Predict the structure.
Amino acid sequence: MGLVVLQLFWTPASPFTRKVVVCARELGLWGQIEVRPTAWPLDWGYATVPFTAGLAEANPVARIPTLVTDDGTALGDSTLICQYLNHWVQNAATTPAESATIIPVDGAQWSMWSLYAVADGLLEAQVAMRAEMLRPAAFRSEDYLQKQRDRIARCFDYCEQRPGELDAPGSLPNLAQITLGIACGYQDWRDWLGDFRSNRPNLRTWYDKYSQRPAMLATEPRDTPEA
Amino acid sequence: MGLVVLQLFWTPASPFTRKVVVCARELGLWGQIEVRPTAWPLDWGYATVPFTAGLAEANPVARIPTLVTDDGTALGDSTLICQYLNHWVQNAATTPAESATIIPVDGAQWSMWSLYAVADGLLEAQVAMRAEMLRPAAFRSEDYLQKQRDRIARCFDYCEQRPGELDAPGSLPNLAQITLGIACGYQDWRDWLGDFRSNRPNLRTWYDKYSQRPAMLATEPRDTPEA
């Protein structure tokens, strides 16, 4: 592959950003990504905060992950970024061995995307709870937190009932599995979210093994710098 | 095209759902979609509410739009649903004339997706404000509302500065334009959001014309039934 450099606005705490990083590592693209660390004051969830230089200029939504491609195109959505990275690897491959993919083809992609949307819904609910917890106590809604807890429980239960979809047939995990693994990891890291393993033996067994992949071990979440 | 029936969990108020409906209409697929209306009590934004029958069973994230394909696969994300509909039309086309697309190919898709992510960020911020406004006053955060207002202003300003991307070269609008049009329409419908036209002559001129497309006129937003 050529010496293309992609810029990624990043923090170690964001599960959506971790999704992009794990995809890049699994696809062998990580060496071509320049990390642009971002800092977020703890009121990011409920106030306009000063943005790290370059972020809002590239992507007016002003959030992470944002990828800037080698021709300056900014992609401000983690699903689209993962699709871009996978497409990039397909286009650059000169031998079948190089043609790794995290998105199945020929019709099989839609069942993968179905599970992916559930796993991504888990990440959204988890981040929504984190943002709500960061609000001043007076503006925090216990009903809202419960809504997200209920959603998280429904989504993990759904995944638990699909053990056949947790293991990819190829050598690489698919994007749904990557996203679900990150949801499990986030649930463990923010331990007030509760243990996803209770009454979910399939998920527990799967994640015990999946979490040992090098791309997962190299991207354990950490708190974002506040400035 | 064959007599395939896709089911769409729907409300007339949701801009993400409108995006899917406009795509289906522009692609000539609307006749193959069975609408499954959903009802939402006004506390949907901050509480677990009773779901319309079938919704949470198909998609445990339990939100709309959710599309169920003819083989029973549920897609619970509007971006993925639009990609599915476009892919479906491409696969079913037997003549070039039938091969309408709302997603450019051969590299041109990434600049489209770049603008799309900004337009979709507009929808997210608008819906976030609506959900916050529905909270009991004691739990409402003016700082949070201002954060979303600032995001909306940045995103509309960004689009205003890209007049060349507002008109598609083909006969159909692309998915970024479709999404931006719906953001403009939502801003008008929820008029407390403010007029997006002030100091944005390019957007005003573009939307004056774009909003007259049959797919837009047929999908004007209306309040969701509460039960």
